Here is the input.
Amino acid sequence: MPTTVLAAGDHFVLPRLLTEELRNAVPEHGALDIRELRLPWPHTPFGKVAEVDEASGTEEELIEALRGSRICVTQMAPLTERVLRACPELELFCVSRGGPVNANLEAATRHGVAVCYAPGRNAVATAEHTLALILAAARGVGDVHTDLKRGTWRGDTYDYDNCGIEIDGSTIGLVGFGAIGSRVARALAAMGATVLVHDPYVRPDAVAGVARLVSLEELLTRSRIVSLHARVTDETRGMIGHDRIASMPRGAVLVNCARGALVDYDAVCDALDAGHLGGAGFDVYPTEPVPAESRLLTTPGIMLTPHIAGASREVAHKAARIVAAEVARFLRGEPLAHCANALAPVTPLCRSGPAMAGPGSARP
Here is the structure.
């Protein structure tokens, strides 16, 4: 009897991409009964749905679409306590993102549902976008682009005090050396930069030949450009505020393509207005979309993009491919590669109940 799978895509990771990769990963096409649902993201911003964050769609539509499904592959669908109670057939929920923030892991574990995710799916795209923002912010591209579109030729940008800085020969600090930060480090080193890294989860030998591991304080005081690549935790939330910005060299540049909660953006605007920071580039914000009254929209020296660092067609395909591979492992009764709630796989022949397999995997 075919296994019923819901491919709950959106306008980025399309339902048809999920379906195509599922059929590629499970050659026995007749073994799957795939249903499709399209969620409204990004045409409608994601948000909180019941107890989960960064989700798209409603509990009601997901419950209806999931009826009879053992497996769901998605990017943004909300896996909540209510959804889990209403869908007892569900056994595997695959989130095609770097972390399953739209899934209630505790509730999923109680209901015996394994939750998978897709680490590294957007590492290349985000690293490339980070480099774009570093280059643009270091050379003041945002402001002169806006002025030129309005008909103003900014000849004053050749004034010595208004010139930007080069990557070659600069000391650049990266806070975080995961899949994204390590790629940015290699690219910057190839461009001639001296790269410093702060990451308490990384050993010095892991950065050897590319960068040097230092304390956060040393990184901030020495770097002309600082780029953030950390996850939001109790330790990192608001980590870059007034005091730490003040410790950076005058004219330094700050870039954030990680998470908006890492930075006090009012402190950044204050430092730009005072001339302490020379520029900034941001792709993520505390509130998205950015409110119309935000100082980020009016403070000179900031290059802004609307949370698109991970937006490439390749990312959509990679995301679908990673979760489809998890479905194939699940159906073969093999261990799941990226299970966030550490549930052992359930054999497709007989659901005898999941067993705990020890602590979860490393940071996604």
User: Anything to note?
Assistant: Confidence is low (pLDDT under 50) at residues 344-364. Residues 3-121+312-332 form a domain with the Rossmann fold fold (CATH 3.40.50.720). The two ends are 34 Å apart (CA to CA). Residues 29 and 45 are 34 Å apart (CA to CA).
